[in-house]
Here is the input.
Amino acid sequence: MHGEVAGDQVRFRRPCPACGAAAVADGGQALIGGRLEWSIETDCPACGPVLACGRAGMPAELRRRLLAEGAHGPVRLELDGAVRPAVVMKVLRAELALDLAGARAALAELRAGRYTGTLAEVAYLVAAFGAVGAGARAVRARDCGSRHGVGERGAVAEGLSGGSGADRP
Here is the structure.
């Protein structure tokens, strides 16, 4: 994914974080240069533009909106059948800071075809699996009745797949 951007955005109404006035906001999340980044720009009629952004701790409201209202909606992570469970758990623990029980739960969701997240979250994991030589891909999950990841974590982007370390920065 080096040099490529995978992400989604959404427009919504919300109170201005500075003064509480009704405002329109544009929020999004993207995988840029191998890092997950998010931003929300609120256009307040009283304060003007108010920007919030970061690399960690994406607001739950933004994540929920991206999954429900974003152009890509939820995206499912699929792994090639040959990927060993130990490799899957190692990558999930390292990239998502999961404990052993959390990694087992995520593995069960993956095996059942129910592990989903935002486009950027799943693209991040596709790159992580590609870095260890494990084939992975992102698949549009809308209309498949899937849940949104394990513990609120998580082909929409044509060609978004991994399988070699060449895709990982």
